[in-house]
Amino acid sequence: MDEEQTGGYSDICGQCGEVNWGVSDEGRFYCRSCHNVIERTKEVVDTNTFMVGTSRVSSISKGTRRKKLEQGREWMVCEGFQFILKHQAEALLAMGVCPQFKDDVLCQFWRMYLQKSRQAYTKNPVHDGKFRLRSQGSGESDSAPESSVMSDSMMSASETDGDGDWASGGGSVSGHTSDGASSVCSGSIDAVSYLTPRQRRSQGLMSMPKTLALCHLALLWAREAITLADLLRFVNEGHIPYVNAYEDFPEEMKLYGRDSLIFRVESIPSYSHLHKEAQALAVFLELPLFPPITLDCLLHPSLLTLRYLTEANLPDELHDWVCRIMEKAGMESSVTFEPMRSRSPLPHYDVQAAALIIIAMKLLFKLDDHTEWDLSNDASDKNKENPDGNSFNLRWWYRTMQTALTTAARRQQDNIARKHWKPQKPLYTSKKDKSVVLKRRRIAEQLQLSFQKLSSSPVAPPSTPPSSFCFRWGEEGEEVWDGPSLHHLTLDSSVRQRGASLQPANPEYWHPALRACKPRFCKSHYAEVEVTLPRMYVWLLDLFSFLLGVKPGCVYEEVLKVERRFLGSSKSQPRARATPRKTQPKKLHKRKQTSKTCSR
Amino acid sequence: MFSKGGLQLHINTPRETGFHKTTRNCLQHIREVLLHHRWQDAAEYMASYSQTLEDTTANMPQLYAEIIWRIGTEILHHHPNSTLEDYNSFYERVKHSGVKHYLKVCLEHSFHLLVNGQFEDAKLQLSIAESWRYGKQSAGQSQRIRLIQAYSGFLDYFIWCDKKATASNEYDAAVNQEMHSYFRQSSVNLKEIMKLPGVWDPFVLSYIDMLEFYNGHEGAVKVLNDYAYDDSFPPNPNAHVYLYRYMKKQNHPLKKLLKVLKILHTLVPSHELMPEYCSLLNEGDLQKALGVVLDLLDYSSWRSNLDVWNHLMNIIKRLRMKKQWLKIFAEEMGYRKDWWLAIHFSTFQARKDSAENRELLEVKSFVVGAFCPHCK
């Protein structure tokens, strides 16, 4: 029995009857013979002995050998990120991404990153001379994600350290504590230098959001169908490790102190933030032209729009219109990402696809709060006359969609409220916080249990498997059903046959001022513009922003971008103002060949 | 319930972390669900809300701990399946969730046990609380510690009562011993408490009860006197009532009783003991008695009371035989001249009395006849 730890507690174990107590990591007493855990905790012992004021001092021994085992091995921050990326890649593979993604793409990117940021594979490591021994070691090691990086020499260095005096840190890196800061304050070796202002300014260092950005770039390179919006959704739902990803580190890698500033996350990055990071990272890595996104790739707008059309329960016939718009706007040329060309930023594939669909709908239904309802009336009349007819009726679509949308939005709010952020094994920033943090963890867990007992469903509901689709449209009578499927409906009440090609029944098209603002001067004008826009249009923007998990302003800006290309040069347009007015409705036709406008 | 710090919890600050957004949303849901009395759903949300205790922002866990405590008790009170076990484990956990409210929670816990008849457990909780020390925190909460002491003594009294009930049947040395030890414990605490200025009515009564049982009469009277006459204590009519009742029980001389009642009269002229005072005075000072009765009649609660009017009638009958009775009347009626008759003898009143209480009507008409023989 560990006398020092247990402070001479000598009651008989309730289960096995022996007196053989030990103290677990979290300070709980447990019986060594039968592993029965009791309520007593080490800190209670301490305060009791203090309070009662007897002469029995509870000894706080150094326990050198125990401490050595607890110390684990020394590791660097980039190793930690390596593990996290590995787990993220594995999660993606489990979702169906091709196996080459992990080894051939992501791993390579990671190695390039290490090289570019001079953390490995380089003769000139980013950490200065103090770490020279260490960084050479890590540089030579095999950086395949599966193997652990530290060599045996490091381990022996720490073992020869003599007694477990915390102040000296470990082995050959005693130098790094000479900056006068508190003695060893992180589990990893270089967390302190990782966070210095100089390093932060250089912005080359990895952070948790950057792991996701790297994954996104790798997915794009591998031409996988998971868009940035999907990636964020999976992270939110917990299918990809991100929040508390460090919990999966191997036992020997201990985290505490300054590590928590690096590895602990309490937010999931937003779409726009992650997009910027990905862009910056691609430039930093000096990546060449990405593999081209061709028509067979699911990221190509034609296939991606098909996916979103299905998601939004719109008829399949709409896809033709979307493709025509795509051609007119010349999207083919800008679909592949080339980081080093400053004029071709990383495309927002998902938002772009949504923008195309919105434009198609604007084209067909005008969406000015009047025309679309008139057209719906026409469609419903037509359907009444011809009972077999299945004309697409916007009003009916709107109602179906709105019901499903409100339910889904409520469910999302609920999920946000119930999300668990705090880890099983909490991180603490300093040694003296440890007991407080552990105690709070314990109490929070216990309270959670006692509340769960009172709730109607004591067992947490099983998490849904990851899915590309948010809504399920189908036939009535299906189990999980958001509404009837409208995919098979035709658009015949919204289009007219004119000569060889179909044209929309609606003759007019409107758009806000198209001239682009200078990128650094203005941010999005959506907040001001929104009040002037038709409500139906705003609702449509909200719908797609909900599906993608972005702000409506983002979708609005993307629609403007596509409209600029679609409607021709924007130089003749007035610049966007604080209160843009609607321009003259441009009369538009759908013929590819000519460019004359035709009036009806 | 939400203090100023709690207001932050409702507002969406621009740079809110995902974690804070979650907790803010969770709290909104909890509020809504509580307003709709959906207790089980509330418990479910509270399970998710418990993670706020681990927030690393400074000072927030204290705030969250209090919120969890209050909402949790609310849920427990209304939940159909909550048991005493649930309460106990909940209170235990909440106690340790925040240092500042440890004593408050201990008190609430023991109150809950007290209300449910678990005297021993309640006492246990209080004794644990009494021995709690936490540096500055415990030093700054001396008021609460006093309160804990007081209730500790009070609980000892309850237990003493229990023991007394069982011991009265047979002579059992052990039980008697216990009883005595509880008495001693209790009196130590209660004596301490009574030194502090305050309103300690139930405590005083319990102490007196015990002292009476042990025939400590002088002690009891002293305690009651201190309680009633100590200037540093807030004015408390009940103190005088207790003193009077006790002295009456112990057959103290009339003069002393009158003295106490006089003070009570100044404090609360409409007190229910006033008729008694009046009858005691009847033997002596009639003028004072008249004053007391008239004071009583000023209050609407006594206006239709037959006893009081009877008293008035008797006093008038006896006073009329004295020489100076008009002068005495005038003195007592002094400032009441203008409105007294109107209030008591309106036609509405007369009709009401003739419908409900004929006797009163007769007495009143006698009085009116006595006061103004020449008016109707």
UniProtKB/TrEMBL annotation, chain A:
Region (Disordered): 125-183, 569-600
Compositionally biased region (Low complexity): 147-158
Record's subcellular location: Nucleus, Nucleolus
Official protein name in the record: TATA box-binding protein-associated factor RNA polymerase I subunit B
TM region positions: none
Recorded superkingdom: Eukaryota
Primary location class: nucleus
GO terms under cellular component: RNA polymerase I core factor complex; RNA polymerase transcription factor SL1 complex
Domain Rrn7/TAF1B N-terminal cyclin: 81-250
Regions of compositional bias (Basic residues) in chain numbering: 578-600
Gene Ontology molecular function terms on file: RNA polymerase I core promoter sequence-specific DNA binding; zinc ion binding
Span of domain Rrn7/TAF1B C-terminal cyclin: 267-454
InterPro entries noted in UniProt: Rrn7_cyclin_C (IPR048538), Rrn7_cyclin_N (IPR048540), TAF1B/Rrn7 (IPR033599), TF_Rrn7_Zf (IPR021752)
Assigned protein family: Belongs to the RRN7/TAF1B family.
RRN7-type domain segment(s): 9-39
One BP annotation, GO: nucleolar large rRNA transcription by RNA polymerase I
Encoding gene per record: taf1b
Secretion signal span: none
Composition-biased stretches (Polar residues): 135-146
Key words of the record: DNA-binding, Metal-binding, Nucleus, Transcription, Transcription regulation, Zinc, Zinc-finger
TrEMBL record, chain B:
One of the record's GO cellular component terms: RNA polymerase I transcription regulator complex
Pfam families: TAF1_subA
InterPro entries xrefs: SL1/TIF-IB_Component, TAF1A
BP-aspect Gene Ontology terms: transcription by RNA polymerase I
Ranges in a coiled coil: none
Domain of life: Eukaryota
Protein name, entry field: TATA box binding protein (TBP)-associated factor, RNA polymerase I, A
Species: Oncorhynchus mykiss
